[in-house]
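Researcher: Please translate sequence to structure tokens.
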Amino acid sequence: MNAIVELRDVHVVHRARGGGLFPRDRVHALTAADLTVAPGETVGVVGESGCGKSTLAKVLVGVERPAAGTVRHLGRDLWAMAPEERRATVGRSIGMVFQDPATALNRRLPVRRILRDPMDVHGEGTRSGREDHVREVMSLVGLHRGLADALPGQLSGGQRQRVAIARALVLDPDLVVADEPTSALDVSVRAQILNLLLDLRERLGLAMVFVSHDIQTVRRMSDRVITMYLGRIVEEAPADRVTEHSRHPYTRALFSAAPGLLRAVDPIPLVGPVPSAVRPPSGCPFRTRCWKATEVCAREMPEFSDASTPGHRYRCHHPVEEDRSTHDLAQSAREPS
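Model: Translation complete:
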């Protein structure tokens, strides 16, 4: 069975804001990204702000065209399609849930119109059939049908995000990309939305890409977790291995700083700010903050290596020992070199 979406050696470069007589700098938002999303699986994406998570999401849904590399949808090159075919393919097969439902929804349209619009645009079904489907998808996401004539401003934050999820599902997509879908919500509502997404994934057999800075939530939601740093994918691991068995020092540092119910926070210290994506460091981009870095890290970007567990790979010249505890790593990272 074909992968739903497959990225191969994808690069995205933006021009930095600026002007005047001098040429603007280029921001390396995504570099040499390889990713495959299979039917029915959930891939989590973690990393610090500015690491390229949202750019990756935009590439997956066909909003961002890569400067180089290929994006394939069900085996076909997305950017080799004619524009009309590409819009139709992406619109029908991939749904997206954005970070803030307050800005993602048209505040002048009632809920029924927001949900019906994608069907109108793509010519799905009859007029009466579309109205029936609006009611069905509202019920699916836990919205009372009495809210069909409400405007987004009359809804709570949780209700607005349920509308956004319903809109992403209304054309029965194969893949849903959720970009920080709970970060704009109250803490009391986040768990409800996450449980809804988990339930929908199971009931509908959806594939999902779940992007978030909340790494414990990503681990809970995902089958597989990828870690990004300065526009690069540096590790890919099964979700049940990522907390204590990840091999990349950056992944270990990220998860060491996340609170858990059964253990105290024992963070691995990272010294210094994240480097600029305009002028990334030579070699491994993480070397300027890594306690394990040596000269080879400055000379060469490491290739991917495979761990002992299938589906686990990482880019690092000096990987963490697979069974070494994060507590021991935190202690060694604090020791003066």
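Researcher: Any highlights?
Model: Residues 108 and 151 are 7 Å apart (CA to CA).
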